[in-house]
Design brief:
With 263 residues, the chain is of the alpha/beta class. The chain is 26% helix and 16% strand. The protein contains 8 helices and 7 strands; from the N terminus they run ααααββαββαβααββ. It has helices at residues 4-14, 40-43, 72-75, 87-100, 134-138, 179-189, 211-214, 218-232, and strands spanning 107-112, 127-131, 145-148, 164-170, 190-200, 239-242, 254-259. The longest helix has 15 residues, at 218-232. The two termini are 32 Å apart.
Length: 263
């Protein structure tokens, strides 16, 4: 099993010298985030610059076990028409999308809800939501259409190959208990040269986040998410961009993204 200490060791071996890494310890409470001893914003983007990936998929099934393994459809049955990051982080994400999304793009928003955080003036082509709650999705004004599906039961997307230019996922990658299958599906539905944009913060529903996420910190989350791109075999080298709006004063926000390889 690829324990979080292994992730931390790999990070130590590749970050710039002159900083001290404070490793997480096993006794901390699930969902708690230890502070790091370096300025996080100066280091987050270095995590995926020269990653040292193990030769094979390094995780076990236990790494993706959750505290609450009850049916996700029950947990997500009640609509939550609220933001899951603070207003400053929402604004930072929307600003990032201003340049990341291009007019006419066909976009798939996975783990979607009542809001996708795209710019209000974004004029996409076919903009599709894939999420868990019908009412939430129906309230999203930026979607052309949507599909309700539990990717933790069946990670196969109900879309044709090479259907989209962009795939987005907002602060939800930590809920996917079959991430390798999901990232392969993302690669399948993206057109060559298309991009998957995963945004992440440090908020979550801890009972539904997978185990290894709760045992690791923000920098390690970047590494873990980057590894999902890598092991899918369908993307160029993933990268990270730190768009945290007010470090230390508002929610952190990191973009991990990968470009679909040419066929």
């Amino acid at each position: 099993m690829f324990r979080y200490t292994t992730i931390a060791i790999l990070l130590v071996s590749q970050v710039a010298s002159g900083f001290t890494l404070q490793l997480p310890i096993p006794s901390r409470a699930p969902g708690f985030r230890f502070p790091l001893t370096w300025p996080l914003q100066s280091m987050a983007e270095k995590v995926l610059e020269a990653p040292k990936w193990p030769d094979e998929w390094p995780y076990s099934e236990k790494d993706f076990v959750r505290m609450d393994e009850s049916d996700d459809s029950v947990f997500y049955d009640s609509p939550r028409l609220c933001y899951h990051i603070d207003d400053a982080a929402v604004s930072a994400l929307t600003k990032f999308y201003e340049t990341a999304l291009e007019e006419g793009d066909d976009v798939l928003d996975i783990c979607s809800s009542w809001v996708s955080h795209y710019p209000k003036d974004f004029k996409g082509g076919n903009v599709v939501g894939l999420g868990m709650n019908d009412y939430e999705l129906s309230e999203n004004p930026q979607l052309s259409s949507y599909e309700v599906k539990d990717l933790n039961k069946d990670p196969v997307f109900p879309f044709e190959d090479a259907s989209f230019d962009k795939v987005t996922c907002v602060v939800s990658v930590d809920y996917l208990n079959k991430p390798l299958e999901v990232f392969k599906e993302i690669g399948r539905v993206l057109r060559p040269g298309g991009k998957c944009i995963i945004s992440m913060s440090n908020r979550c529903f801890p009972t539904k986040a997978f185990q290894i996420w709760l045992q690791t910190n923000d920098l390690e989350h970047i590494f873990i998410t980057g590894s999902f791109f890598h092991y899918s075999g369908m993307f160029e080298q993933p990268s990270c961009k730190d768009i945290s709006p007010n470090p230390g004063m508002s929610d952190p926000l990191f973009i991990v993204q990968g470009v679909r390889k040419a066929d």
